[in-house]
């Protein structure tokens, strides 16, 4: 059985919700990623911030990314998957919620992220087709 841990990109890092968006952008640059999980004071997932969130939700709205926190940009219920979950569960979670990135949790700690690139490397053509049809469908 292929698990979430088998296909994830290891070494993902949290950003605390009190950190500002300019710091999130710097960390994304340093890590060469487009999204970061947001953690509360207890290192519990409270959202995900993307590079697009920073540009569209902050900069384009005329706000200063040095004054807006990641926590202020966290919306909705964060989605995640247990490291031992089957790849079918990963697909179900991502397609069911139309999300492109999924944090992987093991023993209540972040151990990695699954992105579209990870799926493309590990899924067969039919699974990729199903994922794309669901995630990119009109909302």
Q: Specify the structural class.
A: alpha/beta
What does the average pLDDT come to? 90
Strand content: 15-25%
Strand order of the largest sheet: 1-7-6-5
In DSSP terms, counting alpha (H) and pi (I) runs of 4 or more, how many helices?
A: 7
End-to-end separation:
32 Å
Bin the helical content: 25-40%
Basic shape: globular
List segments where confidence is low: pLDDT < 50 over at least 5 consecutive residues. Answer: none
| Strands, total number | 7
Give a quick account of the main beta sheet: strands, pairing sense, barrel closure.
4 strands, mixed
Report the radius of gyration as a whole number of Å.
15 Å
Q: H/E series, N to C?
A: HEEHEEHHEHEEHH
How would you describe this structure to a colleague?
The chain has 139 residues and is an alpha/beta fold. The protein is 39% helix and 22% strand. It has a four-stranded mixed β-sheet with strand order 1-7-6-5. Strands 2-3-4 form a three-stranded mixed β-sheet. Strand 5 (81-82), helix 5 and strand 6 (101-106) form a beta-alpha-beta unit. Helix 5 packs parallel to helix 7. The model has no long low-confidence stretch (mean pLDDT 90).
């Amino acid at each position: 059985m292929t698990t979430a841990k088998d296909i994830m990109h290891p070494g993902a890092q949290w950003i605390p919700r009190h950190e500002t968006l300019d710091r999130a952008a710097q960390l994304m640059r340093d890590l060469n990623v487009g999204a970061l999980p947001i953690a509360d004071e207890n290192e519990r997932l409270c959202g995900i911030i993307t590079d697009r969130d920073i540009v569209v939700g902050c900069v384009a709205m005329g706000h200063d990314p040095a004054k807006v926190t990641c926590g202020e940009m966290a919306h909705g219920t964060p989605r995640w998957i247990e490291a031992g979950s089957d790849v079918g569960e990963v697909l179900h979670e991502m397609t069911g919620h139309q999300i492109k990135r999924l944090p992987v949790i093991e023993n209540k700690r972040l151990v990695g992220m699954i992105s579209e690139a990870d799926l493309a490397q590990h899924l067969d053509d039919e699974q990729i087709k199903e994922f794309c049809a669901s995630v990119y469908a009109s909302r």
